[in-house]
Amino acid sequence: MQHLFKNQLQTYARKRNFTPPVYSCERVGPRHASRFKSKVTVNGQTYESQGYFPTLNKAELAAAKAALMSLLSNGVEEDGFGYKSLLQELAQREGCGLPTYWTDRSGEAHAPTFISKVEIEGEIFTGQGAKTKKQAEMSAAKIAFTALKQRYSSRSPGFLSTSQFQEAPRSSPLSPACQSQEGLQSETPQFSVSNLRAGLTAYLQQNVQPKLPVLNEQAEEYRDSPTNLATSSGIEFMVRGIRVLIHPSGTEMTYPAGSTVLPISDDKWAAVELPPQRSR
């Protein structure tokens, strides 16, 4: 689904007689393990991908997505352009089922009114009345996307916020041609166990409290130890006997059999519950 974002942004610009979107990028790390970050300029406004990606194409897709979501959220588009695609991508990213639409028609044959509804995971969102079925579905998708985006953004405040981590690796300014920094020593942000604790505790309290005791200051001391292993790929630590691995999204990693990607993962960070280690 994400490959559609560049096409949608191109169509968006063409429909408004804007100049075609212009992409620029920066490249960090050695040639054999480069990471990319991209910006796209549309009608004089510049939008940036969040974080670094293993390929230039993925970075440009992320920049195009950021541009579309910003334009739509700001109400620039009134006809619901792109909301069905954005809603489907959001549903897939959050592990929900695909959106299901149905439309009711009323009024005279020469001047009908269409009202669409969309269902996601048993929740129904109703759009506004429209003159065509397509517009009605776009309206329902817009309402659902806006509500779900806000909900998913606020459900685990601060857990994987970039403000809790050190800044990504510094590199040369963006330019039309990607610039390389082969001497860069670190390509990924460094993790802070103390900063992760509060957000992880909130998630555990909300999602697995029946199975897991609540962490608090009087509970078992949580600190760096041999069970909290920080590496260049991420950090692995134990929380009440549960092994949790957190690393930047896009990092090529192989998880042990039985691992579960937690729903708090997003396009910047991935959180994975690892299976218990076997006794030696």
UniProtKB/TrEMBL annotation:
It comes from the Eukaryota. The keyword RNA-binding applies. One of its GO terms (molecular function) is RNA binding. Signal peptide: none annotated. Residues 159-189 are annotated as: Disordered. Keywords: Repeat, RNA-binding. It holds the Pfam family dsrm. Residues 172-189 have a biased composition (Polar residues). The keyword Kinase does not apply. Residues 4-73, 82-150 form the DRBM domain. Gene3D superfamilies: 3.30.160.20. This is Double-stranded RNA-binding protein 4-like isoform X6. It comes from Populus euphratica. The gene is LOC105119203.
